[in-house]
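pasting input
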Amino acid sequence: MKIFFLCRTGHHTSLIAAGILTGLITGKRNLHETLSRIRGYDKINFKDIGTPFFVGTDNMNNEIFTIGIAKESILMERAIKELTAIIGVDPQDRRVINVSMAVSAWTRVGLIIKRIRLNNLARLFFYLGTGKEYYQVKKILRQNGLQPG
Amino acid sequence: MKIIYHCFGGAHSSVTAASLHLGWLPKDRLPTTEELKALPYFDRPIGQDHGNIRFMGRDEFDNDIYVIGRRNESRVFENMTYGLVQVFGLSEDNFKLVNVMPYVNWRMVVGGYSSRKLKITAIGRPIIIAGVKYAYWQIVSLVQKVKVCIASDNPGLNQKTGVEQ
């Protein structure tokens, strides 16, 4: 099965979710250091938002991807489900989990700053945001019946 | 092949383009108001329908024609579609996305907002229909390019933007 985590960029909050599920993130302790070691974290090109990003596999051998869906999260979640149906994918073979609701105000401000290319300042905001997002993301994973790796 | 015409709301320009593709609208004259009103989904979808991919029909080359409203996220939608096609091991050649937004004029914007968002259909719909008629020949031209490219399997049409390279 393929699991798609959705957030605004596909390289921030959804990557935290993917990191927790794949076992790359094991706890909130040293979260910032762990995140900076995760491939793709904060490595975004705004032109590429929407392109699925492969993170790895979880302990059930599911392939984990993240997708950036910008601001239209509900619309894009619906579109992904419909697109996979058109492609001919069995709904049992894919899961789409939207973690956009866990995106914090810090991360949203960070994204605005990143757009004006103040990357180091933006990263500070992302770090402040991840602390708040971690528990939200874990809650969403639990609600979807996913066990952290 | 699956061809998806996309625009802001999936209610006017993309429906017109898809209907032209399927031969439901004339290519040698402007359509009448009744012909436009009779099109399936024309000026029907509302905000909650955005993101739904609607099947319109099958063309003479056995291509499936769809329309979608994706608001202002054209690039995200295109990246996502081609990305998902790759992730599931299909060829990008099986999908063609055609962005109809470049042919949307201010009449269609004002009319669409009045009719769909403000729900003042009596005022909005005539403005939209005037806008569709104004942009009609441009949409005809776009659809002809798409059909020529499909028929000849010609990559000359940029799949991601619907604009000739």
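fyi DSSP finds five helices and four strands in chain A.
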